[in-house]
Amino acid sequence: MQSFFVVSGENIELARDEVVAISKSYDRDMAYEIDSKLVITNSKVPWENIAQRATYVRTAGKIVDTFSDLFSELDLTLLHKSDTFACRAINLSSKRIDLSNIEKTVGGTIKQASGARVSLSNPALTVYLIFTVNQNYLGYSTKIPTQKRPKKIIKSPFELNWKLSRAMVNLSRLNEDEILCDPFCGTGTILLEAESIGIKSIGIDFDKKMCEVVKKNLVANGYNSKIINARYEHIKKIKDKIDGIVTDLPYGISSKSSESPKKLISDFISILPKKKKLALMCKKELADQIELKPAKRYEIYRHKSLTRTILIK
Asked: E strand or H helix at 22, and its extent?
């Protein structure tokens, strides 16, 4: 099954890798190729499953054909049948392409051949013509339910934003059959994002008041992650119950620990259980000091005095 995913221009490398990581969490043998903002996967995983989990995917669907000459090679009989449709052209190449004219021309051909009605606002089927530097693709997508965002009834000014939290969960390659642990869970943003895509979670925090906050945020969404009031060393006691660790390491004002951030991170890394999936975020200055060989590293620029680093292993 060949699927396509067009990602946003926000954190492009991370966005592309997120799509691949989600697919690999279900299908280790999947293959993929990347072309600019386009990720194409060959996998048994339906595109809808990936699109619903991914943070930075803007358009997704099933690829049915490639073409070089739009009007002589396009085989529209390969498209899914539907009562209503819309035609969208996406230019990911450096060429100047009249997308509006292409949409009208191809849309007219589809309408005449199939008898389907055009519905730009609420089509049951969207036909995509994707132009890249290396290849052009014909694809389509059907409507999928919009996922409801988790509610956060109690927030903190220092908490990680939901997009990066969700992306880290996905980059960890955890799936619904596995359990995530956040040993510095704070107000629970990572736990909420994990639970929203069906991944069971365990949160740890040494601040008793913060544990009560995260419990309230979870209850507000009907989630039942287990929350443990303890230091991060508690991971050693539950290592056989978890499959991966996803966390935003505390620093500065956001950390109430008496330890320096450098020592806290060093001690934390030293007790990490082996052979667990891992996604960590911390300040770039601290990440440079971590003796860990991640499979991937991403730099997230926030402002001139703060660059966050995501480490994936």
From this structure: helix 12-26
* Cα–Cα distance measured from residue 308 to residue 284, given in angstroms and rounded to the nearest whole number: 5
Beta-bridge partners for 34:
39
Residue 117 pLDDT level (bands cut at 50, 70, 90): very high
Distance CA 136, CA 49 (A): 24
SS3 287: helix
Confidence class for position 178, pLDDT limits 50, 70, 90: very high
Range of the domain at 45: 2-142
3-state secondary structure of 196: helix
Determine the pLDDT at residue 294: 73
Average pLDDT over residues 36-53: 95
Residue 78, classed as helix, strand or coil, is helix
Same domain, 74 and 137: yes
Residues 168, 128, single domain; the answer is no
Are 120 and 181 found together in one domain? no
Tens of pLDDT, residues 61-75: 999 999 988 777 788
CATH number for the domain spanning 220: value is: 3.40.50.150
Helix axes 162-171, 12-26, angle to 10 degrees: 50
Q: At which of 83, 112, 142 does a domain end?
A: 142
Residue 169 to residue 190: CA distance in whole angstroms: 7
Return the exposure string of 233-271: e unless at least 16 CB atoms fall within 10 Å of the residue's CB, then b: ebbeebbeebbbbbbbbbbeebeeeeeebeebbeebbee
Question: pLDDT value at position 37?
Answer: 95
Paired with 204 in beta bridges are 228
Dihedral of the alpha carbons of 245, 253, 283, 240, in degrees to the nearest 10? -10
In-domain check, residue 157: no
User: For the chain, what percent of residues have pLDDT higher than 90?
Assistant: 73
Q: Is residue 293 part of a domain?
A: yes
Region 121-143: mean pLDDT is 94
Nearest to 248 by CA among 159, 150, 115: 159
